[in-house]
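Practice problem 4.
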């Protein structure tokens, strides 16, 4: 039996209402089902190109976004489907984008790696490693200059922490005390390169000290741990105390992309991390504290599955862009 004494109550249980916690679980299931639906659609030839799945990383996306409003911003990565859903994206429009349809978020022109939903504060995924870092700094600078009170969460992977853009972005954000949270989803591999071989510091969060900002490393498969660190960083940002760096240590179950043959990881390593699945851990926490009862998790999972089925159907039935519009929204027209 879990220890539910007052001294052992997880942050999330005391910080959020039961309704919000059930909503967070639903989002985690929705992300998992979306990724599985995307993978199946790719296998069936409905999606062309490639994609980068975040199965196993659901807690970091939802935990980081639960404290944000629609006016707050995020920047995302090539592995950004979960971030989009955590920020409130419609899965039907996401699938339509994957399928290259006119009803997609970018009218079928962006695909898996470039979904943006500006209305919900998602400034877009980015196929460039580390590409979202300077964009997040720009969004945070705008918020500070305009005094909107908005914060920006910048998602990036462990591979990006060795890019020049990472260091430039953190330095500038610290100098100007910008309201931005740099959230590194450290899934242990940049492409096929282990962080043990690519990164000099033991913890990416240790790099915060070089830029005089708060840094924290948390279990990225623990929704409560991610949300606790994120809420603290959001509070600092809103209070004018500047940026923070959070490292969410997690793991992607699939290869880097659909073309990755995944030969650099052992079956034992993958199995060990799969045993740390963030969704059952979330279910257990909510069950232990009476937030969900018997059968609730299965019902929430079924609802998420049904939404994915509807989303795929919407994408299949949506119109393809007309050939005559091939350059629309892609190239700008010169001024008359």
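Answer key:
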């Amino acid at each position: 039996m879990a220890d539910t004494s007052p001294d052992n109550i997880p942050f999330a249980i005391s910080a959020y209402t039961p309704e919000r916690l059930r909503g967070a679980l639903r989002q985690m299931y929705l992300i998992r089902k979306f990724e599985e639906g995307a993978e199946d659609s790719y296998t069936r030839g409905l999606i062309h190109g490639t994609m980068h799945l975040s199965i196993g990383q659901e807690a970091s996306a939802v935990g980081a976004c639960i404290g944000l409003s629609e006016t707050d911003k995020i920047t995302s990565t090539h592995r950004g489907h979960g971030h989009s859903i955590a920020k409130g994206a419609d899965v039907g429009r996401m699938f339509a984008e994957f399928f290259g349809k006119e009803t997609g978020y970018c009218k079928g022109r962006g695909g898996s790696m470039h979904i943006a939903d500006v209305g919900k504060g998602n400034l877009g995924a980015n196929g460039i490693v580390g590409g979202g870092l300077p964009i997040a700094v720009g969004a945070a600078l705008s918020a500070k200059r305009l005094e909107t009170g908005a914060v920006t969460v910048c998602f990036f992977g462990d591979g990006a922490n060795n890019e020049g853009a990472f260091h430039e972005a953190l330095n500038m954000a610290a100098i100007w005390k910008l309201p931005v949270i740099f959230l590194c989803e450290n899934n242990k591999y940049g492409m096929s390169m282990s962080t043990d071989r690519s990164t000099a510091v033991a913890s990416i969060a240790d790099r915060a000290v070089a830029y005089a900002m708060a840094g924290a490393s948390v279990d990225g498969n623990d929704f409560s741990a991610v949300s606790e660190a994120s809420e603290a960083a959001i509070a600092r940002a809103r209070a004018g105390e500047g940026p923070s760096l959070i490292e969410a240590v997690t793991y992607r179950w699939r290869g880097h992309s659909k073309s990755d043959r995944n030969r650099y990881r052992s079956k034992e390593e993958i199995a060990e991390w799969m045993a740390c699945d963030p969704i059952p851990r979330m279910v257990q926490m909510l069950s232990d504290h009476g937030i969900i009862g018997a059968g609730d998790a299965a019902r929430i999972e079924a609802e998420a599955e049904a939404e994915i089925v509807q989303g795929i159907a919407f994408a299949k039935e949506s119109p393809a862009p007309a050939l005559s519009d091939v350059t629309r929204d892609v190239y700008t027209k010169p001024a008359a």
